[in-house]
Amino acid sequence: MKRRHQNRIEVLQGTLDLLILQTLRWGAQHGYSISQAIRINSGEVLQIDTGSLYPALHRLERQRLISSEWTVSDNNQRVKLYRLTVAGKKHLAAERSNWEKLSEAVDGILNPARNGSEA
After folding, report:
1. Which of 21, 74, 87, 101 is 20 to 30 A from 110 in CA distance terms?
2. Separation CA 72–CA 101 (nearest Å)
């Protein structure tokens, strides 16, 4: 069992928020489908447990970056559907830009030869 989880990567809170907002950009979803989308789209590397997901959803809702409503699913179960707000879309765009800058900066440190400045 341990071997199956060895390729998982811990996700920092700010990164989790970014992943949730991006997932909701694809359309309104309930909590389980958000976690599944993150898992599947990360090639099974990122797995968000409910102990991290739902506090993040509640925090994003308090910040008015997402909204939610109760609805009935296709299999007749009551589920909470989350969607991105206008403020959430703006926040996502800014966070994606920050993420790209951070990724480039880390890449510059990990691969200094690419930038022509090897330390």
Report:
1. 21
2. 41
- The letter for the amino acid at 106 is V
Amino acid identity of 99?
Answer: W
Residues 58-105 have pLDDT tens digits of 999 999 999 999 999 888 999 999 999 999 999 999 999 998 998 899
Maximum distance among all Cα pairs of the chain, rounded to whole angstroms: 60
Per-residue b or e along 13-22, where b marks 16 or more CB atoms closer than 10 Å to that residue's CB: eeebbbbbbb
R_g of the chain computed on alpha carbons: 17
